[in-house]
Amino acid sequence: MMIDFNTIDVPSKGEYKEKGSRFVAYAYPVDTELAVKEVLKNLWDTNTGACHVCYAYRIGVGVNETYRANDDGEPSGSAGKPIYGQLLSFDVTNVLVAVVRFYGGTKLGVGGLMSAYKIAAKESLSKASIKKKKITKVISISFGYDLTSNINRIINQYELIVNDQIFDAECKWELQIAINQYKEVEEVLKQIQGVTINR
What we know:
By secondary structure, the chain is α+β, with helices and mostly antiparallel strands. The protein has two domains: about 5-130, Impact, N-terminal domain (Ribosomal Protein S5, domain 2, 2-Layer Sandwich), CATH 3.30.230.30; about 135-199, Alpha-Beta Plaits. Helices cover about 30% and strands about 35% of the residues. The chain is built from five helices and eleven strands. Helix 2 runs parallel beside helix 3. The mean pLDDT is about 95.
């Protein structure tokens, strides 16, 4: 069972020039396809004069992985695939790499484009701070306010991440648990009288 994955926490940037064309690559941490769309829109808005914004992303791991490679009008397979290849090479997920091209007046041909997009993507990922993160699963629980200290003790013991907390007569909390500890934590929570696990 996979229990962790490599990703980046903050954006990074790389650049490559070939025959007058500039290829500016940006690596971004992303968790959803909506986040991908927002980044791409922002890149188009802030890079006036760009002729292409080609990209690839990976989100999730294993059977839950989704990915896409896009050539944005460049010859088929000349941009998105080389960028995606670098995501695989660096073994990162939950990452978008977008390469903004500014045309320099000389055609590079498919081989030249593949090389340029690959190198630019590699530059952005080489400058990124790659970190290991645990694969987690979310659990939602309800409990009386008087049990707060018991729940906090479990959170500290298992190093859980609290996504959401509603404090009330009946508290509702959402917790992230490392996938390899999920069953154990679930059993511990079940044994506390007054805790309800919401499905």
